[in-house]
Structure formats: C-alpha cells, structure tokens
Sequence to fold (344 residues):
Amino acid sequence: MKCKRQWAVGVLLGFTAVGSLFAGGSKAQGSAAGPSVQTVTIKVGDNWGGTHPMAAALDTVFKPQIEQASGGTLKVDVYHDGTLGNEGDLWNGVRNGTIEVAIVGTPMNQEYPTMLISDWPFLYRDLTHAKNVWTGPIAEEINREFHQKFPTVSMLAWGPNSARTFTSNKPLTSVDEFRGQKFRMPGNPIHVGIAENLGASAQVIPLGELFSALETGVVDGQDNGMVTVISQAFYEVQKYLYETNHIIATLEIVVSQSFYNSLTPEQQKIVADAAKATTVKAWDDYIKSVDNDRQFLRDKGVIVTPTTAADQQRIIELIQPLTDKLYAENAWAKPLTDRIKAVQ
Fold:
C-alpha cells in the first residue's frame, strides 16, 4: 500500500508540474538555472502605410530590437494604416491603456498647446536641422513637460512626418492659384490658418477618409509630404503638387504609462532605446528619400512644382497674420522657436 501511495503522489505531482507550464499564457523559454518568464506583447499602432519611413522603421528597428534585446520576454505586434483606429483613437487608446504604444502627430494640441511646435511654419533651415532638434535636448525637455501634462502617457521619441506640400486636382503651380480652392487640412489651427491666409478654404477630414474625399471631389486637394502622397496613393487622385515645404512635421512615439510601469527597469530601457533608434533611422531614411519621392510622383504623371525663394517669401508674408496670432496667444512660442532656430 505504501508503494502504491507513493506512486500515486508522484503521478499527481507530475501532472501538477506539467499543468503549471501551460498556465498563465505565453512564456519565454527559461534556462536551466531558472523558471520560464511571461512574454509581454506590445501592440503598436500607426496611421501610415508600410512604406512611410516611420512605419518602416517600426518594422525594421523597433520590433526586432526590442524582441532581441529582451531575450523574448517582449513581443511587438505592429499595426499599420489605422488598423487600430485613426489618430484620435490611437491617442485615446494610449491614454486609457488599451493600446500600449502609438505613433501620432498632435491630436492633443488643444489640451497642450506646446505641441503646436510640431507644425510650426517655416521653422527649420532644412531636414537635417529638424532631425537635430528632435533627436536632441529640446525633445527630451518637452518629453518631461508632456508627461507632467499627461501623467498616463510618456513620450519616448520624435520622428519625421514629412516636409509638407500641397496637392490638388486643380492647377497649383504658383501662390496665386491657392485662391478659391478647397483643401483638406489636419484639425489644428496652424494648418487651417495657412490655407485660409493663402486664400483657400479648409476642411478637416481624417486621414483614413482622405483618399475618398479627393476621389469624389469633396475637396480639391490636401497638404502632406510627398512620402505620404506616395504611401497613401494620393497620386492616383491628384494631378498637381506644389512643393512648398511650409511645415516639417513630426510624429511622436507615445507609450501608455500603466503599461510602461508594468515593465521591469531593464525592459523599460529596452523600449526607450528602441524608440530613439527607430526615430533616428526614420529621419535618415526620410532625408534620403525626398529626391526619389519627387521623381516617383513625376513618373506617375503628377506635375511637381518646387517653390522658388520668391514664392516661399511671399507665402511667409501671406501667413504672417497666423504667425503673429500664434506668438500672441502662446507665451512659450517665441523662446522655444528661438532656441530651435539656434540649433546647429
């Protein structure tokens, strides 16, 4: 009897041990010296096609760097093209913790006007200047202020959206041709103000609905970088592109603070380091892509017209009422834009 009882206890313990291996979800492989570790999945959402430099860098840098550096304890699932929702959805998802990481522009600028700096017109000397600003100390400073404003979110890094241009189905090769046209503009006062100061009308439409709005003539055109015109296939429904480069816009990698707090300090560093590496790669790839993007659009039949120095100066003069208003309404703006202009 004693032997049978020992045998029964041994079998029971064996089943219990096996069951424990399968309890609690996915686990990273353990070592001989220690137990297996729970694998944490990070959902990452953006609104861009996979060819956009920020979207591409999520696939080629963010995901593999985190998974490799964490030894499999972190798994990254990337969802492009608004699969997890539009920009507002992504921002709200990160704020309430239903999405771990998102790449957004500035859907929070009405609550935190300092984020208007992401869309400030004619702020940089060139794309390299913009990269140096948003991979340097100014970005780190705003990240800290941002977290104070939004304690449930941390901002990890700033990458490129694009140098914004205007496209249209109607002729758009000079400053005078803005007048009377209807443009889709993002829902912030800078973009809307630029269109109106140039004599056009502005309509706010989510990016995911923009192709249809252009195709059906709800609006004549829109403003985005050439990289976005390509990744969203707007060249199929637009004839003219005026290369104004009026804004060098950014995209920010934001993380849910409740999720971030659930990670170990080592995992937090892995995620933060990967975010910074992702944006550096995206800036470098974007800067290299501009000439190729221009040629691609011309090959697709789009009439691309760069602005002359005189055209650009005229645009700056026409939007001066907007710039004056922004400075008057935001005490932080003049000191911050002066610091940005001084970055080498």
About this structure: The two ends are 85 Å apart (CA to CA).
